[in-house]
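During the reporting period the student researcher (J.K.) took over the structure-prediction task from the postdoctoral fellow and processed the backlog of single-chain submissions. One of the processed entries is reproduced below for the supervisory committee.
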Amino acid sequence: LVLGVYAITDKRNKSAGPVGSPFAFCLLIWGLGMAFGMNTGYAINPARDFGPRLFTCLAGWGTKVFTLRNHYFWIPIVAPLCGGVCGAGLYRVMVEMHHPQPQPRHLTE
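J.K. obtained the following structure tokens:
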């Protein structure tokens, strides 16, 4: 997700413009949801998984909700953070590093 955000908002890339950028973001999120939604339940926001688990725990189910599927509850909390750092680093190394450097402008008197 962060790699896609970097690609859409990078000033040195060909921009989608003020009208096309929101559409590009929608396509990015929709595409990620279609690709991974069946497996992870759209685990793009930790609150969509952890909030209901916490409520269910407090409502009487106990800590069983945190041990379901081999303690899966921590994945939607940690994975977006790690994925964001990896995506940003990957974009910087694979794309941004190869942008041409702007030429310094010298002042003449």
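The committee noted the following: The CA atoms of residues 1 and 29 lie 7 Å apart.
J.K. will present the remaining backlog at the next meeting.
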